[in-house]
Amino acid sequence: MALLEIRDLHLGMRSFEGEAHVLNGIHLTVERGEIWGIVGETGCGKSLTGLSISRLVSTPPGRYITGSISLEGRNLLTASEPEMQSLRGRRIGMIFQDPTTNLNPAFRVGEQIVDVALHAGGLDPSILGVGAKASRSERKKAARNLAIDMLAKVGIPKAGERIDDYPHQFSGGMRQRVLIAMALIGRPDLLIADEPTTALDVSVQAQILRLLYDLVQEHQLGVLLITHNLGVVAQICTHVAVMYAGNIIESGSVREVFKNPNHPYTTGLLASVPTAKMKRGELQGLPGSVPNLLAPPPGCRFAPRCAAVQPRCTAAIPPSVAVAAHHEVACVLAEPHASAAA
Amino acid sequence: MILRIENVTKDFKVSHGPLARATHFTALKDVSLSVGKGESFGLVGESGSGKTTLTRLILQLDRVSSGRILFDGTDLASLSARDLRHLRSRIQIVFQDPYASLNPRMTVHDIISEPMEIHQDTLGLNARQRTDRVVELLELVGLGGQHLFRFPHEFSGGQRQRIGIARALAVRPEFLILDEPTSALDVSVQAQVLNLLHELQAKLGLTYFFISHDLGVIRYVCDRVALIYRGEIVEQGETERIFEAPESDYARLLLSAMPEPDPDRSPFRPPAASAG
User: Fold this and answer.
1) Which residues contact B218 (CB under 8 A, 6 or more apart)?
2) Cα–Cα distance between B194 and A234 in angstroms, integer?
3) What whole-number distance in Å separates Cα of residue B132 and Cα of residue B125?
4) Beta carbons of B8 and B77 less than 8 angstroms apart
5) Which domain of life is it from (chain B) (predicted)?
6) Could you give the domains of chain B?
7) Cross-chain Cβ contact B261/A230 below 8 Å
């Protein structure tokens, strides 16, 4: 059974001007040990996909129209709130983009991590390594030791001393490590990392990516890495899903998608990244901008910006076709697998 | 050379609490660099390395502790307040965050014409001429005059950054400081803005002082580049030379940390293992 399976997920978002269809039929399967990159422009729904998995989208204004999200067979969309709370911080870990706003400035980082550890330990005593009958102070002590271990593991020097520091005493990279430690302390099976390195310097980014990669190797986590940095995806991800205006328009193994992009949007996105051989002025951006989701264009939502647009593009949203093993594309031009192999 | 920075050091007084003795923090240490007219000069460094301090010194928002900054041959520190204001019309800046750097209560027209009002004595434009100039600038950055009386929230990130560029160009500067102008934008939009900057440079003969931590962007845009680390310049030279044959350890470190969008060049994937 797949670790995470999202089937035909549709999410509407109510606003003053009407309901925007922000997720428009997401299909995604994540297995243990896989790192999935979710890429796309601002507003394409990548963060909402991540938030939907831990059910952090408030409803209303959000409304799940159809679809299911299952974590090892259990449908998260119909789970009760207490049930979700038992998953968050334990089975599902989340890292958010901005390390400065996701730590409470009024509490020492230790307290904040210990909170998560106690919550996870309450659900699974083996995490703290103390017996089920242990007293509150014993559990607290175990949680604190675990927090120090975790901070050391994510590369914070002198973790035993730093645990009693406040968030402002840490640099951006160190704060992000604290958040990673917090997300991992409950030994999650699925880690959702929403732009974990966007606010960081490249050298720190490289360290954080290394850390994530090693943790996946060690614990066989499934990871959803939400980012707009294609370089990061190429380096660390095993698979990638390219999103555009609420749809996954191309997905598959990183190598397949990056080496052999089939969808004009993926091609355009990859061509937007400056490379070593490019002369000034040669860079090709994607013309236009993302559509208004309150009144999306008919059919393929990329059609108005697409260079290869055809009359049939506006008829319906093109279905996903497998153009190769582990490579699906939702475009009318995509050739199915059999002929692609010939 | 339009800008010469000679042995600039900048110290800040830091005091930890009212009773503690003030200590000094050296934000910039003996920094020297020069930017030629019409070239694109890149400044690369991590957060806290002194990039922003250096731009604040160039704009004379802070005073140097020692050393000199010469713009077109004049020492900035020697200028009177009046001359300095005049000089500022020649040096303009585009900020990093197009969401925070435009006043949400001002129309695009007011945002772009404000610097022209401030530099009224240099430019000598009346209200009508300023409006004409705003329309001209909007067209120059690819937006068009129909946006004149809209507010910033009606625009996307890329469009806002175009407004920021139009505002910087309003007073006909020669020297443009670009402080991470594309780091808040999507790659597709970043490409559009980079190409716009390239066109503008050719059209208007601008000199760019381009600050970024994105080495891919720096390589694409800049003729020469300086790497700054903890307030010191560790390496500077022709962009291609630094990228092809870095001399300092720091340059090598930065280059190795730069994620390339090529799955085959990932440090996590040994080529043999990924061949399948």
Assistant:
1) B42, B44, B210, B212, B225, B239
2) 23
3) 10
4) no
5) Bacteria
6) 8-12+26-90+175-259 (3.40.50.300), 101-173 (no CATH)
7) yes
CB atoms within 10 A of CB B84: 15
- Angstrom distance (rounded) from CA B96 to CA B179: 5
- Comparing A111-115, A157-161, B45-49, which segment has the lowest mean pLDDT? B45-49
Interface mutation vs chain A, best among B182, B188, B242, B248, most A CBs within 10 Å: B188
Q: Do A205 and B257 touch (CB under 8 A)?
A: yes
Instruction: List the beta bridge partners of residue A328.
Output: A251, A322
Parallel, antiparallel, or unpaired: how do β-strands B74-75 and B91-94 relate?
unpaired
- Residue A167, pLDDT above cutoff 70: yes
Percent of the residues in chain B that have a pLDDT greater than 70, as a whole number:
97
Q: What is the pLDDT of residues A225-256, one digit of tens each?
A: 999 889 999 999 999 999 999 999 999 999 99
List, in order, residues 6 or more apart from B213 with CB less than 8 Å away.
Answer: A201, A202, B44, B45, B46, B47, B180, B183
Query: Can you give the pLDDT at residue B71?
Result: 93
pLDDT of B273 strictly over 70 = no
Confidence of residue B276 (pLDDT cuts 50, 70, 90): very low
Q: Tens digits of per-residue pLDDT, B112-165?
A: 999 999 998 888 899 999 999 999 999 999 888 888 999 999 888 888 999 999
CA distances from A53 to A35, A92, B24, B149, B256 (A): 16, 9, 49, 42, 34
- DSSP conformational letter for B76: G
Q: Residues A57, A58, A62, A65: is their CA dihedral positive or negative? A: positive
Q: Quote the minimal CA–CA distance from A285 to chain B in Å.
A: 5
- Contact between residue A23 and residue A49 where contact means Cβ atoms under 8 Å apart: yes
Question: Angle at the Cα of A293 (from B147 to A273), degrees rounded to 5?
Answer: 75
> pTM value?
0.84
Residues in A closer than 8 angstroms to B273, CB to CB, are none
Nearest beta carbon to residue A229 from set B253, B259, B262: B259
All residues of chain A having their beta carbon less than 8 Å from the beta carbon of residue B191 are 271-274, 283-286
State ipTM.
0.77
Q: Which of A201, A232, A281 sits opposite B195 (nearest CB)?
A: A281
Chain B residues touching A276 at Cβ < 8 A = 219, 243
The tokens for A11 are 């999410």
pLDDT in tens, B131-143: 999 999 999 998 8
Please state the rounded mean pLDDT for residues B171-191.
89
Do A215 and A225 touch, CB atoms closer than 8 A?
Answer: no
Pairing of strands B207-212, B40-44: parallel
B142: three-class secondary structure by DSSP: coil
- Mark out chain A residues that contact chain B at CB-CB < 8 A: 41-42, 171-172, 201-206, 209-210, 213, 228-236, 254-255, 258-259, 268-276, 278, 280-281, 283-287, 289-290
pLDDT at res. B170: 94
